[in-house]
Amino acid sequence: GPCYCDQACARTLDCCHDYAQACTVIPCVVSQWSAWSGCAEPCKTTYRVRMRHIIQEPRNGGEACPALEERAGCVEYWTRQGTECQQSLIPALITTGGFGKARKKRAAADGNERAGYCVEFQLVAITPGCLHSHHSYTRWMRYLREGHTVCVECQHPALHSPSQHCYGDGTGSQKNQLLHWQAVGNHRCKGTWRRIRQLDSCSCPSVHSFLFI
């Protein structure tokens, strides 16, 4: 009888003897990726999307189609109306306070020395990635512990004009609001904290002192 190009026969084992010749395998063909979209939502850590579509459906046991949508992390610092996001909604990027002295020296040499400030936070949640930092420049992340109070200094050049604040410092946040932070140098090290207070200078031990980026 006639040979029907129905790939189900490969599972039921009743294909025609010339199935492979009469029913050529046609794999799925997809288009190129579209351009990345903007962030799904402004003023928060979210995602952006790119898409592609099917040009040729697979036939006769051809290779299945790959994913048609891809997402990537995204943060936008401006609202849809073009105004700057509220500071508290932006994840804070931090590094070890050990870089503070070198940063101040550079600022003084450039004539950009400006008075900074310090913010105390209580660490609420920390990802396991902070404990798996093997490079010498990421060892400071091991001192991050849930429940501990840490000091984060805002100084030039992270001190943005004209707001005179560092991104993610929690200015304007509600009491006990959870704020997000991420460690620079290890994208797997991040978490949440609560803002306690703002000070002119930090008073935490050096291992619990950090800098806004």
Automatic annotation (TrEMBL):
Coiled coil: none annotated. It holds the Pfam family SBSPON_C. Keywords: Disulfide bond, Glycoprotein, Signal. Residues 1-28 form the SMB domain. It comes from the Eukaryota. SUPFAM superfamilies: TSP-1 type 1 repeat. This is SBSPO protein. The lineage of its organism: Eukaryota, Metazoa, Chordata, Craniata, Vertebrata. The gene is Sbspon_2.
